[in-house]
Specification:
Chains A, B: Keywords: Repressor, Stress response, Transcription, Transcription regulation. The structure is a homodimer. Chain A is an alpha+beta fold. Chain A is 46% helix and 17% strand. Chain A is built from 12 helices and 10 strands. Chain B binds a DNA duplex through helix 2 and helix 3.
DNA sequence: TTTGGCACTCGCCCCGCCCGAGTGCCAGCG
DNA sequence: CGCTGGCACTCGGGCGGGGCGAGTGCCAAA
């Protein structure tokens, strides 16, 4: 077990290193923090901390830097979530109010998060499967082609073009549209499959039934994970502040950011509620081994409809970042609830 | 005027420099190209080319590298557009077919372009103002709130929430929807303003007129440039290949890429048809002074509804990049025409 | 006009040096 | 037993000098 003071030393190391980006030595530590002990004592504590794997030296005769494990301890036991300042809070409101549609909300959120944390921001669009249907629209593009448009209560819109096996009359179309809406409007997406399964049979014309089945198939297909998840990233310019050695670091991170699948999985691991912090090697994806990911779910009501977060160097200001992420998530939730 | 051989020397310099990323000297040039003259002659030619501002030496006693002006001459007079190989062409088809909606088309295009050119790809969504309206949908979210959904012939969907000054009945809504669609469906967006201007007056109830005006105002506002333009970028990981000194270079480029306004202006300068190449300082935006932008319009018919292009180092393979950009633009145009 | 020759320039690489921050260890002190 | 000051040691980073070689410009000859 680590004594109180050793934890204090670890905290000091993390704070200094985050601030200066340079390995921190025993002397500098005692000067910058009121630890009440001499450098020699700190050195002993450091030796213990190193033994336990919380800190490391890049090379002999250099100061110490925290390891992933050290950051983990720091986040879990030594640091709280720093609440935002009033100006920052106001900035969030100013920035997010006035968004005209969902795309706008998401893109503003991304920019805001990137700016507040000075890191890379990732925002997932509200998941379809966890949203409710506001409206389903069917348009005839030509006699044998339909367009299906889905609108969710979170403002998301999806469309699909459908090739009908058989030409489909305008009356049947209006009919289908009405029946479809009366069944699914206001319902959760997750419930849609059983709500519509008997729909084809309720049509008299057998040709129409085929078309109705096709439409429903497309509708259900739209809800398949993988396809339905979208996200937006921003603040990649902040990657250039990652460190001096970043040519090597930045590459895999940029690659990871382009792999939506990777990011989605990353966010997918977020616990339903509450904030998740993944530090360095805790990230399953190799390219992100030298980064930390802070993420949290957001939603219009109590429950999360999607996630957002930031990707930054393991050497990041955890309390501040966590505060910003949480505050933004809450406010985005409010915005969505209003619209 | 430059002699034939001097132009040939310039071409050789550009090609070698693009390949090796290193200043090219007279000896190396004669070895790698059949110029039929000695290094000394080439040196004389180089001196002339330098005097004219087509090439420069990074420092005394180093080889020459092309200047922006040199690249310009190369692009204008020395290089054609390199057609893609059959496998590449096939790759485009494989990659782009199977896109389910417009977002999918755009995101696939971005990835494809980035992969083909190994540079940063930028794709603008089809412009609203140059598209036609396929359908306008009005939904009542609550008695006093409407949602306006616009669907274009290029598959783009825009939605806006409208707060009504006065509650608006379901009958009036259906009425408005019908009248609106009969007027604008199939028409160009640009024509919308005059098509709808007398619409409010055609309503009897004076309260309804206010709402109708609000709806129309929102509709027109949606078409305002700035707001209506969207784009997607990808392949930023390719920035890491820009050069050895890239920490300095990459930063402003990433920043520029995040500034949608900058990019839109960049693409906006593209001539209606035909490819545009902006080299180094020809780019108005300072952060892109060490990059070149190759862009072209694309569209479903003969005319362009939007633009796409790539951003790369001035030291890029112009013929190849131009070939890829053109080929992708053409195929995307086809895809849009089909859907 | 082209060519070979030649002296010259200058950036880069390599090496060795020194400096100093930081360490680990130890003996002494409370 | 824990803390402290002292001390020898380590080693990375910065600085400067020297050699190398690619590349140049100039010139005289073909």
């Amino acid at each position: 077990m680590l004594s109180e003071r050793r934890l204090e030393v670890l905290r000091a190391i993390v704070q200094d290193y985050v601030g200066t980006e340079e390995p921190v030595g025993s002397k500098a530590l005692t000067e910058r923090h009121q630890l009440g002990v001499s450098p020699a004592t700190v050195r002993n504590d450091m030796a213990v901390l190193e033994e336990e794997g919380y800190i490391a030296q890049p090379h002999t005769s250099a100061g110490r830097i925290p390891t992933d494990r050290g950051y983990r301890l720091f986040v879990d036991r030594l640091a709280g979530v720093k609440p935002l300042s009033t100006p920052e809070r106001r900035a969030i409101h100013n920035f997010l109010d006035g968004a005209v549609d969902l795309d706008d909300v998401v893109s503003r959120t991304v920019r805001l998060l990137a700016q507040l944390t000075r890191q890379v921001a990732v925002v997932q669009y509200p998941s379809l499967t966890r949203s409710s249907i506001r409206h389903v629209e069917l348009l005839a593009l030509s006699p044998a082609r339909l367009m299906l448009v889905l609108i969710t209560d979170t403002g998301r819109v999806e469309q699909r073009v459908i090739d009908c096996p058989v030409p489909f009359g305008e009356t049947s179309l209006a009919d289908l549209r009405a029946r479809l809406n009366s069944r699914v409007a206001g319902r959760r997406f997750a419930d849609v499959p059983q709500l519509v399964q008997d729909l084809p049979e309720s049509f008299e014309e057998s040709e129409d039934r085929a078309t109705v089945s096709t439409v429903l198939a497309t509708l259900l297909e739209t809800l398949v994970e993988e396809h339905e998840e979208r996200l937006m990233i921003g603040g990649t310019a902040n990657l250039t502040r990652f460190g001096h050695d970043f040519p090597l670091t930045i590459r895999p991170v940029l690659e990871a950011l382009e792999e939506q699948v990777v990011l989605l999985r990353l966010l997918g691991e977020v616990k339903e509620s509450g904030m998740t912090v993944r530090i360095g090697h805790e990230n399953a994806y190799e390219g992100l081994n030298s980064t930390s990911v802070v993420s949290v779910g957001y939603g219009s009501g109590g429950e999360a409809v999607a996630k957002l977060g930031v990707v930054g160097p393991t050497r990041m200001d955890y309390p501040g970042t966590m505060g910003a992420v949480r505050a933004v998530a809450r406010y985005v939730g409010q915005i969505l609830a209003e619209s």
